[in-house]
Structure formats: structure tokens, C-alpha cells
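hey so i finally got around to running the thing on that chain from the lab meeting. sorry it took forever, my laptop kept dying and i had to restart like 3 times. anyway pasting the input first so we r on the same page abt which one it is
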Amino acid sequence: MDFFSKLGSKITDTTDKVAQKTKDAVELGKLKSQISAEEGRIQAAFLEIGKKFFEKNAGEVGEEFVEDFNIINEAKAKIAEFTNLIMDIKGTYNCPNCGTEVATTAAFCANCGSKLEAPAKAEEAQTVEETPAE
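ok and heres what got predicted. didnt touch it at all, straight out
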């Protein structure tokens, strides 16, 4: 009987240790997740500081930032170029009133309701006006 008593005690101790390790692992996971979240907040704040600095100092920046500013400006220009190519392929443009993407065939903006003159229509109108009358 003493054997079974000791065996039961060992099983109970082992179960308690496993349960405690499981609780510790869960707690460690939660804490690591919270640390990651706080690190993410820090990174977001650094990015926001950098963005504000860039916007505030776009024309007047120290030499140590000139190369970085040039990289950002070049990347922004490429993004705008790529965005325009995408919009050309999709047959869309931005509403001049609210900036929402609309189809070149749309008569009105679905977001703000402004009457639209698609860029293609505006170009055709210019071409017609520039053609000399016979």
C-alpha cells in the first residue's frame, strides 16, 4: 500500500509541476506578446516622428539627411508614376473634388456626387478645339 501511496504522490507532484510549467509558458507567451505590442508602438511613434520631421523640413534639411530625403522623394515619384500606370490599366482616375478613384466613364463621383469630366474626354475636347476649322 505504501508503494501506491508514493506512486500517487509522485503522479500528483508531476501533474502539479506540468500544470505550473504550462501556466508559466502561457504567462511568458502573454508577456512576450505584450512586449511585441509595445515595441510596435515605439516603431510606429518613430515612424511618425520621422514623417513629421520630413514634412516639416522638406526644404531645409541638414547634410546628414539630404540623401535620405532624396531617396524618399524619388520613391514617392516612382509610386505616383506606378499608381498612374495602374489607374490607366484599370481605366480610372481620381475625382478632382474628393480624390476617390472613379472610372473614366463615370459621369458622377460615387463618393461626393460631383459631376465628372473624365481626363480622356477633356483631352478629346482640347484636341477638337485645337483642330483648325475648314
